[in-house]
Amino acid sequence: MEAPTIEHVDVEHRIAENQIDVLSCPSFGTSKAQDLETVELVVESRRVLSKKLFFLTGRTLQSDGGPLQIVFDRSTMDHTSLEVQLLREGPVVGEQIRTRGSRVEKPDGSGCEIVAFECVVLRPLTMLEDKLHPAQPPPERKKGGRGKFRALPAADAAAEAISRLSCEDRLTELCKAALDGDVIRIVALANVGVEVDAVLNEYGHTALFVASLHGRSAAVRRLIELRASVTCRSHGGATAATAAAANGHAEVLRLLQESGADCSIPGSEGKTPAEYLGITPVAARSPSAQRGDARLFELQVPEDHPGVGSCYIDGGFTQEVLSALTRLCSILPVAGNQRSTQGRHDRHYFCDAEGWVSCSMLAAVRAVGDKAPCMGVAMRYMRFLVYNEAGGGLPPHLDLSRTDEVGQTSSHTFILYLTDCDAGGETMIISSLFDPKVFHRVTPRRGRLLIFPHACPHMAGEVVAKALPKILLRGELF
Q: What pLDDT is attached to residue 123?
């Protein structure tokens, strides 16, 4: 059903003012209401960035009537609310949005945007119900008997669904199909011209690498039949054979070897697939010997602050591990120069397919016993941040959680510093995103591991010239 224009919406049928959807982030409580402003926007376009964020642009109904962009974080919205369900599905062009939020400068310096904390769709409630639960016409029946339904064969159904996808979405679908081991979808994608050796993500993975990493032997066999290369290397140097061997997928490794995979190529840890054959797979591997000189320092914050449990650990990593991480960062490709409001930094994305970084992280956390705020299990997808110019930093912000392939969701952020910064570059635990009070300044020290909850407000101080470069490894824990 097409929504009427704003002029035809009866005021009496609009959603009441008190039926608003408040983001659940604890640092954006109603005590900060005086810091927010209210705007009304007629939607002109909608843009989705990943699965977490989306943006609405349009013209405001204020006196200036100028263009404006509103930013929504879908991951923290109330999923049970009717209005929020509508926002997640996407308002149509011409609909009116009322939102309360904070006006901030855009990262690219092109103007302002509103970061939404509360929002309501100004649409008749009956239309909301119609959009989310549209009435279905009764099925037509042939005279003299019941209507019949014939399901398409699986291959035809997959081809039909794929034909409606964009080129970018087809690559995403190929990655999912390899992860799931779905041979039918893989073949359907290849039949419409998707390159089976295409790089699918910022970690340098191909479909064969993804399938090998997760032990999907049927998918690996079919990808090999589709002439997928068994020699492609992900960012960091690991091959499909490395990923299979390190994770104990013997059948996958056999298929790769029979197809000519070179098992003498070292991966990011410096070990070859042949060397991993005599090592316990990642999933069952115990962390390396705990270091007796590891020390935990708690960062005290008020009891109602979302950063409760924040801490840092010194002495949890050996110099060999720190040197290996520094070397790894130097060979990873630069994902792009990221502009923040305070400067630039380079990002280098890395997937710990062999599990050596995760095991080192777990050993550092277990070395301090039950004082650690979380289990210390690291997600395999990580990124290095390198600040190469003075002034680089990050403004006050929160971190989003990550959910891995098996449905495990992270709870904490980790930052492992790989260089010292005697002046500047500190990570600051702050009271809130607005009018922040600094509770703690954590100075970067090589080997220092900082851990804090995702909901903890924090910021990065400006890096000074004499402390360059500032290098750190960042990721998620549960």
A: 56
Asked whether residue 102 falls in the same domain as residue 160, the answer is: no
Residue 43's beta-bridge partner residues?
A: 58
Give tens-digit pLDDT for 233-282: 999 999 999 999 999 999 999 999 999 999 999 999 999 998 888 776 66
Q: What is the DSSP string of 227-286?
A: T--SS-B-TTS-BHHHHHHHTT-HHHHHHHHHTT--TT---TTS--HHHHTTS--GGGPP
Q: Are residues 11 and 106 in the same domain?
A: yes
Q: Do 36 and 108 have their domain in common?
A: yes
Residue 424 belongs to what H/E stretch?
A: none
41: domain CATH number is 2.40.50.140
Q: Containing domain of residue 469, as a range?
A: 295-477
**CATH number for the domain harbouring residue 195:** 1.25.40.20
Q: Answer yes or no: are the C-beta atoms of 46 and 55 closer than 8 Å.
A: yes
Query: Which letter does DSSP use for residue 114 in this model?
Result: E
**Sequential DSSP letters for 219-230:** HHHHHHHTT--S
Burial 176-194 (b: 16+ CB within 10 A, else e): ebbbbbbbbbbbbbbeeeb
139 lies in a domain? no
At 307, list the tokens. 């950063």
- Do 450 and 318 share a domain, yes or no? yes
Output the 3-class SS for 363-400.
HHHHCCHHHCCCCCCECCEEEEEEECCCCCCEEEECCC
Tokens of 164: 């409606």
Q: What's the Cα-to-Cα distance from 18 to each of 31, 75, 199, 241, rounded to whole Å?
A: 16, 22, 48, 58
The answer to whether 357 and 382 are in contact (CB under 8 A) is yes
- Tally the domains of the chain: 3
Specify the length of the chain in residues.
478
Of 240, 258, 281, which marks where a domain is finished? 281
Least confident range of 152-156, 261-265, 305-309: 152-156
Helix axes 217-225, 183-191, angle to 10 degrees: 20
Same domain, 300 and 229: no
Which one has a higher pLDDT value, 1 or 49? 49
